[in-house]
Structures are given as C-alpha cells and as structure tokens.
Amino acid sequence: MPNVSKRPIAGSIHTRYLIPLLSLALLSAMALVFSVTQGSSGLPLRDVMNVLIGQGDPLQRTLILDLRLPRTLSAFSTGGLLAVAGALMQILLRNPLADPYILGLSGGAAVGALGAMLLGLGALLVSGSALLGALIATLLVFGLAHGSGSWTPSRLLLTGVVVASGWGAIITLMLALSPPQRLPGMLYWLMGDLSYAQTPWPALVLLISICVVLTPFGRSLNVLARGPLQAAALGVAVKPLEAGIFFLASLLTAIAVTTAGSIGFIGLIVPHMLRLVLGNDQRLILPASALAGGALLTVADTFARTLIAPEQLPVGVLTALLGVPMFLYLLHRTR
C-alpha cells in the first residue's frame, strides 16, 4: 500500500481556516479606518496616523482620541461579542433562531438601565444598572429552568421566552409612565446607542480572551452541535460544557448590552451568514463571528452618525438595513 503523506491535508485545512480569517481581519481593519476617518468633518488617513503616533493638531487629537476612536472600538467589540454570543446560543439550544437576547438578558438589562434613566442618574450608573439587570435576568432564568431537577435546552428556552415577555411588559409600563423629556434617550437606548460608549477596553479585552479560550473547545462544540447523546457517546462532558456555554454567552451579552444598549439582528444573522459561506466548523465560525460582527456594527454605527449629521440614527436600524440584504443574497446563492 502506498505511503500517503498527511502534510498536504493538514496544510489544506490550515489554509481553509487562514484565508477566511485573514479576509475578515482585513475587512475589519477597513471598517475601523472608515469609522475613524468619517464623521461630520472628514479626516484624511494621513492625519489620523499622525495623531496615533503622537503628532497632529490638538483639535484633531481630541476628535480622534477622545471621541471617534473609543466609539469605533466600542462598536467593534460590541458587535463581536453579540455575534459570538449568538453562535454559542445556537449551539447550546440547537436552534437556528436563537440569539443572545432569547433568554431575556436584554430585558433585564433594559429594565435596569431605564430605571436609572428615570432616576436621572449619570451614564456610568446607567451602564452599571444595565449590567446588574442582565446578571439578575441570567440568574433568574437559570434558576427557574433548573427547578428541582436538571435543566434541558428546551426547558431553558421556554423559561427564557416567558421571562423575556415579563421584562417586556415591565419595559412598556416604564415607558408609559416616564416623563416626556426622558423618552427620547430611553427609546434610543432600547434601539441601540453608542453615543456614550467611551470605555471600550473591557469589552475588547473580553472579546479577545473569549476567542482564545474557546479555541481548544472547538471540536467539543462541533460534536455538541450534533446533539447531546452523540456528544456524550464520544466522551464529551455535556452538562459542564452546556453550563459553561450558557454563562459565557450570558456574560458576553451582558457586557455588550451594558456598552451599547439593545442592538438586535447581529447575534442572530451573522453566525448564519458565516455558516452559509464557511460551513459549520466552530473552530472557524467563532473567531469569524467576532470579526464579522464587529465589522458590521462598526460600519452601521458610522452610517448612523454620518447620514443625517449632526443628528444620529438608531444603530440597530442600520444593522438590519445593512445585514438583511446581505443575508438574503447569500441565502439565494446557496439555495
């Protein structure tokens, strides 16, 4: 029997991963540059580079370092967190319609944030209240789904949907009772708003860390996506892995909502778009989701603050307007 070398196969596998990730990394870099250079007053790329190396006009330094760059990095990290959280939720629940908000985390965060706005608290306390609300929602859903026995994905999903409906009723009541002067800010937060996102580093560090941590578990996630019985038969510790996925996805969603409010669509559609193009290997889908989700939200936020400048559009509307045609086109091409 002829000796068949395995090197070409391994090389082809690495190439299959490397080319899409490098392409998405290049797309993400272009989105970041586009966001920093565009605004109510455009800036040449040369001026931006001068500012980043410590030179440039003081006014340009303030515009880039204090305003545009933090918002751009916040948009990128938030989009990446939501896309990765959506991919993890779809694995956990084995449901292609699952998204980061399906278990009611955004509802709990919204109640906390809107309550802080009604009390007239500052942006930092609004973010803290949103994070607290998201954590309370996580514990509530997990506790109710567990009950007196063990939880299952279907039980977790049903509990999350019911709890999310309860949060939605509380949000509607708060909006109905709130004074008119506070309604615009509350509605913008519910539709996604990056105007006050000035501290991108926690979300960015978390995004990079999660992608690094999840890489060794790629094979186990691939098996788990096929079903818990097959995963258990192949030696995967199903319950600890499912619990870890739930808490990781909850943490990613909580930080994303705290940073930018409730931005829909990205966590649901971005993983689907990538699976249509790249297949269903989680070792590729998870880092690709981080890059594609970050690039999509960065471009959407740039359009949101420039199309009718100095007024701003809700960024959640722009993510849908940009992503829906892309998804439908890919769906048509792969039918």
Automatic annotation (TrEMBL):
<comment type="similarity">
    <text>Belongs to the binding-protein-dependent transport system permease family. FecCD subfamily.</text>
</comment>
<feature type="transmembrane region" description="Helical">
    <location>
        <begin position="73"/>
        <end position="93"/>
    </location>
</feature>
<feature type="transmembrane region" description="Helical">
    <location>
        <begin position="100"/>
        <end position="119"/>
    </location>
</feature>
<keyword id="KW-0812">Transmembrane</keyword>
<dbReference type="InterPro" id="IPR037294">
    <property type="entry name" value="ABC_BtuC-like"/>
</dbReference>
<dbReference type="InterPro" id="IPR000522">
    <property type="entry name" value="ABC_transptr_permease_BtuC"/>
</dbReference>
<dbReference type="GO" id="GO:0005886">
    <property type="term" value="C:plasma membrane"/>
</dbReference>
<dbReference type="Pfam" id="PF01032">
    <property type="entry name" value="FecCD"/>
</dbReference>
<feature type="transmembrane region" description="Helical">
    <location>
        <begin position="125"/>
        <end position="144"/>
    </location>
</feature>
<protein>
    <submittedName>
        <fullName>Putative siderophore transport system permease protein yfhA</fullName>
    </submittedName>
</protein>
<keyword id="KW-0813">Transport</keyword>
<keyword id="KW-0472">Membrane</keyword>
<feature type="transmembrane region" description="Helical">
    <location>
        <begin position="255"/>
        <end position="277"/>
    </location>
</feature>
<feature type="transmembrane region" description="Helical">
    <location>
        <begin position="199"/>
        <end position="217"/>
    </location>
</feature>
<keyword id="KW-1133">Transmembrane helix</keyword>
<feature type="transmembrane region" description="Helical">
    <location>
        <begin position="313"/>
        <end position="331"/>
    </location>
</feature>
<dbReference type="GO" id="GO:0022857">
    <property type="term" value="F:transmembrane transporter activity"/>
</dbReference>
<feature type="transmembrane region" description="Helical">
    <location>
        <begin position="156"/>
        <end position="179"/>
    </location>
</feature>
<keyword id="KW-1003">Cell membrane</keyword>
